[in-house]
Amino acid sequence: MKLIGMLDSPYVRRVAICLKLLKLDFGHRPVSVFRDFEEFRKLNPVVKAPTLILDDGQSLMDSTLILDYVTAIAGSAVTSIPDRADDRLRATRLTGLALAACDKTVQIVYERNLRPVEKQHEPWIDRVSVQLLAAYAELEAEVGLATLPLDAGRLGQAGVTVAVAWRFTQMMVPKIVVAAEYPNLQSFSAFAEQQPAFESTPPE
């Protein structure tokens, strides 16, 4: 298998870390959807990162769908969603909030970095920032209520996604999401980022 995309994307990094936790062999090709658009288009005409190219040449898109597939073929519970209803609900909720935080961070970055200054729409940025802060407020409260597993083998998709989202947001918009206001997320992220699968997969 070959994973296509840059590790500064939280979606690509999320998949790469889970693949390592699942102990699946894969290659990584850091192709940018911006700088390397034509090269990416040859690999996947849709130009969507992450793209996972399977050994038979078929390709998969969307980090959640990719993880669903690779977890099934690995036959491992390491990155699966728990079977028990209450645990499954919490994992799904945490994952949804973390992905929402990623989405809103990306929207702010695109507005600030890709759109000309004279065309940037401050009311839109304000609205997205409110959504971003709401996602992190919910995550901080959730992690405070019940700590995520401090065991790399039990992180699951939820734990990986929360940690990856937090690192991404702190890289991109630390002045909007002030780290000191989220001690539970800071503590959990610090633990996760020390794990081999995270350390060997730094955001580029």
TrEMBL record:
InterPro entries in the record: Glutathione_S-Trfase_N, Thioredoxin-like_sf
Pfam families for the chain: GST_N_3
Alphabetized CDD domains for the sequence: GST_C_6, GST_N_family
GO molecular function: glutathione transferase activity; maleylacetoacetate isomerase activity
PROSITE patterns associated with the record: GST_NTER
Residue ranges of every copy of the GST N-terminal domain listed in the record: 1-78
UniProt keywords, alphabetically: Transferase
GO biological process, one term: L-phenylalanine catabolic process
SUPFAM superfamilies in the record: Thioredoxin-like (SSF52833)
PANTHER family: GLUTATHIONE S-TRANSFERASE YFCF, MALEYLACETOACETATE ISOMERASE
Name of the protein in its database record: Glutathione S-transferase
